[in-house]
Amino acid sequence: MGAGAKSEAIRLVESANQLIVAASSGGDVADAHTERIRRALDHGLSRRVDHRVRETHIEAPGWYDLTADEVDGLVANEAGMLVVLGSHPNGRIREAAVHLAQPIVEPTDPNARKPPAGVTRMLAQRSLDPTLPVRRAAISLVAALFRNELRPEFSGRMPTGVERAAREIVAQSRAVVRCPQLVEAALDLFACRIGRYSVDGVRDHHQHTLTEVDRREQVLAELRRLVTTLDDEAQIAAGNRLIEFYERSLRPVRATTRCGHRPSFVGRTAASRRDAASNAARCRCFTPGLSELAMRPAPQHQQQVFTATRSACRH
Question: What is the pTM of this model?
């Protein structure tokens, strides 16, 4: 866990504590604290920050003395508290936050807005929660969210909140054990809808950086080890599908760019990456930034193929 995640977690706990104290005493809250909580509603917390919020201990009595009965009132005053309280160290408070998200995920109004990304991301993280009641409640809501987006009348790009939730699920090997049904549903979404990891979208607008390749290969290795230890058929099936998904995502694929030129691959050596950058610079659809990335020397231990799409073209 990086220092940045720890610092962000401390700031979030401090801001949440200020809102809790103000709600009980009727005092004012600085705009900076309110804005930080509202950003959580729009974007959610990263997995590292989520972990840090649950593990961080600072001087914040309002935060640690909070009870599940107070959650509803806090969320009514500031919607972003739903996301932050979803990472509270107390499992009962996390469970209360998950239950409060139900009207957002399953609204009675058919014209209701899509759930904010912060809420869907929180629910996906709670679907992997170590506390069983929290996990069960979150799995039910995320399953409903995915099921709704898999309806035949929906097509095209996934809503941001749905894609964030699906990415949270497929990004962690433990999802195969804790929520295999969500793994299957997320992979179904990526197979038929457009998104960052989807069949139609992954190479349409997203480049695999070397860091991303490393992360995917690490998850792939974890999955291969995990599947050999499983006995449950549903878990094994989800694990094998996720392995296939990651293997496909690491496979270089040629695509057509906006100007109709075929892209070059940035290869295994610094020289081949310089050649690709040179080709890209001559193409009018060149995306700025690839040349600096391609010119960067590869680490000695790095032997992956970096796939460039819609960026490095040759005539």
Answer: 0.77
Query: Residue 96's Cα: distance from chain center in Å?
Result: 22
Query: Cα separation of 159 and 292, whole Å?
Result: 32
Residues near 119 by Cβ (< 8 Å), separated by ≥ 6? 41, 44, 82, 83, 101, 104, 105, 161
- Spatial CB neighbours of 160, under 8 Å, sequence gap ≥ 6: 114, 117
With 70 as the cut, is the pLDDT of residue 96 above it? yes
If we measure between CA atoms, which residue out of 140, 116, 154, 155 comes closest to residue 38? 116
Q: Average model confidence (pLDDT) for the chain?
A: 80
Does residue 232 have a pLDDT over 80? yes
